[in-house]
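Re: weekly structure request thread

Next one in the queue (152 aa):
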Amino acid sequence: MLNNLKLESDPLLFVLDTFEEVQYRSNVVIESLCRFLAMFQMHVPCLRCVLAGRAPIKEVSGVPTWEIELKDFDPMAAQGFLEAHGVTPSPLAKAIVAQVGGNPLSLNLALEVWRKEGADQQGIRQLRTGVIKSVGIVSNAAICFDINHALK
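Done, posted below.
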């Protein structure tokens, strides 16, 4: 199958989201995944992997990595995100951002509540300001590594 894709020289980005699910299992599972990715890279030399998750990601099985923290949206970007997903008028989107902040997960949850229950000029009804932020949602993080470098 890989031969049909002609990936000998073209780069391939391989993204694994919710990597925390793998991390919660055990180091053995993480090491097995890394062995799989190493074998995959033998067949696809320009493979680049991104592991994304909510838990901090340490170095993966001796493979050189670099971590990129994905921070919250600033207020304008958060408002734009809500508007792009149908929240109108603009003052309503701004009010919801004031309630939940700029964390993408919080914004997605707020979108679901807005879709099901609606909102008024002050934002989502009966949502105490800051409640979602106080839950302690961990920022998203992504880690990139080059297995090819580790195999040298």
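Residues 99 and 128 are 8 Å apart (CA to CA). The helical segments are 2-5, 20-25, 27-43, 75-84, 90-100, 104-117, 131-134, 147-150.
Next request, please.
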